[in-house]
From TrEMBL:
Keyword Electron transport: no
UniProt source species: Methylophaga sulfidovorans
A single GO cellular-component term on record: outer membrane-bounded periplasmic space
Enzyme class: hydrolase
Protein name: N-acetylmuramoyl-L-alanine amidase AmiC
InterPro entries linked: AMIN_dom, LysM, LysM_dom_sf, MurNAc-LAA_cat, N-acetylmuramoyl_amidase_3
Keyword terms, alphabetized: Cell wall biogenesis/degradation, Hydrolase, Periplasm, Signal
Enzyme nomenclature, EC number: 3.5.1.28
N-terminal signal peptide: 1-19
Length: 448
């Protein structure tokens, strides 16, 4: 009996709680190095080592378990081919970076600071031998090619620079879709509150936040009490050049105790049915595959192009959905802890990351009261704005006005960063509300 009680005590008080996981991953790079920043739930104890044939960097996180799918940002222009992770044993989460070649690496943990949580920072750089080899290759090319060829290359680069300066840059456009409207009132609360009214109020607050964001502009699919069909909402967003689509609703259920926010993305079944419809009517669905017309493509090529576009859109939808849900968790209760998927028609644009936010249960009297409150509406709008901002910080769009960013690494100074981006230190300080020139490793600076 004593032995049984002792075993029970050990199981209860020594088993890991699995409370800690990775919140997100950010990647930045230049010609010589790359930096990965893992945002963590808690302080981490870790071990890092490399493996060869093929080259890999392995990082073991003690007492971590990844509950949610980790969104992997673009790895273009980095020495990383892929990022993988899995439970190595009962107490360890193992991260594996598949590398294109051998690298020098440095791993460090950082405590919470300002709005940033605990972080694990991984710096990768070329080895000295690789740098020498790269420099030698450039010299050989310059020496062995005729002077005219080198001159032509320089002239071509100068033309590209001039052209880029001349071409107008555009704002990122966020399509905000207040659900229902007109004769379609949506769900109605116990005290007569109509879904169509509160979601329009929240949408307008979100639009104001988007319009205040540098490099962004909002578009409301409706800004008054009018009825718009679901397909028209998608069409209006596309016609206005939307880069993201957010549909805002308020949930309802027969059980008045049901409560909390939810975030939805398109289900795979919904994506498949939409793809079939588009491919069946390609002539009337031109430019729906990432801006590429399907009308003149054969069946196989059209299917592949559409699949690529849908995959990228769904991945983007899931990424922004997870960030919005994290923000909503700080506002109040969430109905589901993970992003859900469903075949909502308004989410079926194949080339625009799209999410549907159920802000609360209007059928719950307490949540109905909150939905009518301007302060709570602002909190919901801010939670969605955080998701929008974070997505485009990690997934920049070429040719847009969204400010550049720089993740501060070891040895960086504000003057060096200003020189690198050819801007004034005072402008960087102003853009980031810095009272002094002091910066910390892991800080994300807006570059004006």
């Amino acid at each position: 009996m004593v032995r049984l009680l002792l075993s029970f005590f050990l199981i209860c008080f020594t088993a890991p709680t699995w409370a800690d996981s990775i919140q997100g991953l950010r990647v930045s790079s230049d010609n010589q190095s790359a930096r990965l920043v893992f945002d963590l739930d808690n302080k981490v104890s870790y071990k890092a080592f490399t493996l060869a044939n093929p080259d890999r960097l392995v990082i073991d996180l003690k007492d971590f378990q990844q509950r949610d799918k980790l969104t992997i940002p673009s790895l273009i222009n980095t020495p990383i081919k892929a990022v993988r992770y899995a439970a190595y044993d009962q107490h360890t989460l193992r991260i594996v970076l598949d590398l294109a070649h051998e690298v020098q690496y440095q791993v460090q943990s950082l405590p919470p600071q300002k709005e940033y949580p605990n972080r694990l920072v991984v710096d990768l750089s070329y080895t000295k031998a690789q740098l020498k080899q790269s420099i030698a290759a450039v010299k050989d090319e310059a020496l062995n090619k005729p002077a005219a060829t080198v001159t032509n290359k320089v002239e071509q680069q100068q033309k590209v620079i001039k052209t880029n300066k001349i071409l107008p840059r555009r704002d990122i456009i966020i399509a905000i879709d207040p659900g229902h409207g007109g004769q379609d009132s949506g769900a109605i609360g116990a005290h007569g509150t109509k879904e169509k009214d509160v979601v329009l109020a929240i949408a307008k607050r979100l639009a104001k936040l988007v319009d205040k964001e540098p490099g962004m502009r909002s578009y409301l699919t409706r800004n008054s009490d009018v009825f718009i069909s679901l397909r028209q909402r998608i069409r209006r967003a596309r016609e206005n050049g939307a880069d993201m689509f957010i549909s805002i609703h308020a949930d309802a259920f027969t059980n008045r105790n049901a409560r909390g926010s939810s975030v939805y993305v398109l289900s795979s079944r919904g994506a498949s049915s939409e793809a079939a419809q588009i491919l069946a009517d390609r002539e009337n669905a031109a430019d729906l595959a990432g801006g590429i017309s399907l009308e003149d493509k054969d069946d196989l090529l059209a299917s592949v192009l559409l699949d690529l576009s849908q995959t990228a859109s769904l991945e983007g939808s899931l990424e922004v959905g997870q960030t919005v849900l994290s923000g909503l968790k700080r506002v109040g209760h969430v109905h589901k802890k993970h992003v859900e998927s469903a075949a909502f028609v308004v989410l079926k644009s194949p080339d625009i990351p799209s999410i549907l936010v159920e802000t609360a249960f209007i059928s719950n009297p307490e949540e109905e009261r909150k939905l009518k409150n301007g302060s709570h509406q602002n909190k919901l709008a801010h939670a969605m704005m955080v998701g929008i901002r974070n997505y485009f910080q990690k997934n920049s769009l070429p040719g847009t006005n969204l400010p550049q960013q720089h993740i501060v690494s070891r040895g960086d100074t504000l003057s060096m960063i200003a020189q690198r981006y050819q801007v004034k230190m005072a402008d960087i300080k102003s853009a980031n509300n810095l009272a002094s020139s002091e910066i910390q490793i892991g800080d994300v600076l807006k570059i004006p």
